[in-house]
Specification:
This protein is of the alpha/beta class and 251 residues long. It has one domain: P-loop containing nucleotide triphosphate hydrolases (Rossmann fold, 3-Layer(aba) Sandwich), CATH 3.40.50.300. It has 10 helices and 10 strands. The protein is globular and about 55 Å long. It starts with a strand and ends in a 5-residue tail after the last helix.
């Protein structure tokens, strides 16, 4: 029986009078990669941000319905700081801090009160190894993170997320700003990370969703049209709308 990490029940999201998400109900399984696909402006990223309450930071945003993480309602039973430690986020554009590679990865653990150098050293190395970039950066730990290539910066941001030991990693189009070689490295990394983490990824690249995800959900105009095993979605979509989008007839 597949363990459920997130259970979303009848979720509606409003930005003031505009309804961005309409009655979304979805189960996200643990230790799997779930992709959200759909045309621009369909609600994919807005939905992703409801999973760690980033929409709380948007003036006029309002959520109805339930988002359960391991059975607890994240809007009534979990405080946002704890939630965002458990549910990490990697953004579309790499966003390293203007600090050294080491200090980027050590930032979260330090915020949690870890100050001993030996402990931080171990966390930094482990996180960079998990992000498949230790060999590239082990001799550059004191160099500025801003001196890295875009692909290296994105893997550093993934390492920074891993350093606080999250349960879930949310990724909002993490390769859209990267070249094909860097994209392949990130995709390979995501597949490896699935063993330890639950991963939810928004992608505009349908080939990417087909390559790396276990489940795929198709969004259109703020609604989730369908969610299923990725192979089923791409070979036997239940909805004509999904079929039209996947075959390139719109979007």
């Amino acid at each position: 029986m597949q363990q459920v990490k997130f259970e979303i029940k009848d979720l509606n999201l409003y930005y003031r009078a505009f309804q961005a998400l309409k009655a979304i109900s979805l189960s996200i399984p643990a230790h799997r990669i779930t992709s959200f696909i759909g045309p621009s402006g369909c609600g994919k990223s807005s939905f992703l941000k409801t999973l760690n309450r980033l929409n709380d930071l948007v003036e006029g945003a309002r959520v109805e319905g339930q988002v359960l993480l391991d059975g607890s309602d994240i809007y009534t039973q979990v405080d946002p700081i704890t939630l965002r430690r458990r549910v990490g986020m990697v953004f579309q554009q790499p966003n390293p801090f203007p600090q050294s590679v080491y200090d980027n990865v050590a930032f979260g653990p330090r915020m949690q009160g870890i100050s001993k150098k030996a402990a931080l050293d171990e966390i930094v190395e482990t996180s960079l190894r998990q992000a498949a970039i230790w060999e590239e950066l082990k001799d550059r730990l004191r160099k500025s993170a801003l001196s890295l290539s875009g692909g290296q910066q994105q893997r550093l941001c993934i390492a920074r997320t891993l350093a606080v030991k999250p349960d879930v990693i949310l990724m909002d189009e993490p390769t859209s700003a990267l070249d094909p070689i860097s994209t392949t490295k990130i995709e390979d990394l995501v597949v490896q990370l699935r063993e330890r983490y639950t991963i939810v990824i928004v992608t505009h690249n349908m080939q990417q969703a087909a390559r790396i995800s276990d489940e795929t959900a198709f969004f259109l105009l703020g609604e989730m049209v369908e969610c299923n095993d990725t192979k089923e979605i791409f070979s036997h979509p239940a909805s004509k709308k999904t079929e039209d989008y996947i075959s390139g007839r719109f979007g």
